[in-house]
């Protein structure tokens, strides 16, 4: 994994798309570009490979499956899916909600990831504490008693904080700055989508 990191760079330089690069159309209800958002979400799922435990594969596959649901709708109706908001509203007009529901779960998973990383950046605790804290505040309330133990196992399987940061790059200051930028960009887009999803017209 670290072999792909350019000299003097960080793991974030290897991503196909960063959340900072996902356009927000502020003049049009904060529309979030669908293609770039899905690419950034896909890029971020590889962070769970860096965490390096098979216990995280359910977390990653959950995100990947929901990305797939949204992308399938986008491919089926590209003209109506330029932004995520347009995709949802146009799908709901067809009396279906596969992608809409997929996006709800995708946003929940991304919120969980953002909260875990934000907690770790701000508190400096071990990753297991940060991920457990984030899980309790986000996904846990939506998960059944069958799913909770699977995710809880992942929270306990995180590497030591110092080892994780070392995998993201050799320069700790650069790693933290890059992580801060990515998390802040992710938080902003998650917040916009959650605000949209709370509206009556976005529900099924």
In words, what does this structure look like?
The termini are far apart. Helix 1 packs antiparallel against helix 3 (57-76). A hairpin with a 5-residue loop joins strand 1 and strand 2 (31-32). The model has no long low-confidence stretch (mean pLDDT 94). Helix content is 62%, strand content 2%. Strands 1-2 form a two-stranded antiparallel sheet. The chain is built from 9 helices and 2 strands. It is an all-alpha fold. It is globular and about 50 Å long. The relative contact order is 0.16. The chain has one domain: Glycolipid transfer protein (Glycolipid transfer protein, GLTP, Orthogonal Bundle).
Basic shape: globular
Gyration radius (Cα, Å) is 17 Å
Second rung of CATH, namely the architecture? Orthogonal Bundle
CATH topology: Glycolipid transfer protein, GLTP
CATH homologous superfamily placement: Glycolipid transfer protein
Strand content: under 5%
Give the averaged pLDDT, no decimals.
Answer: 94
SSE string: EEHHHHHHHHH
Number of DSSP-assigned strands: 2
Distance between the termini: 41 Å
List the helices and strands and how they pair.
Layout: E1 24-25, E2 31-32, H1 34-45, H2 47-51, H3 57-76, H4 84-93, H5 98-123, H6 127-137, H7 148-156, H8 161-167, H9 172-197
Antiparallel strand pairs: 1-2
Helix pairs in contact: 1-3, 3-5, 4-5, 5-6, 5-9, 6-7
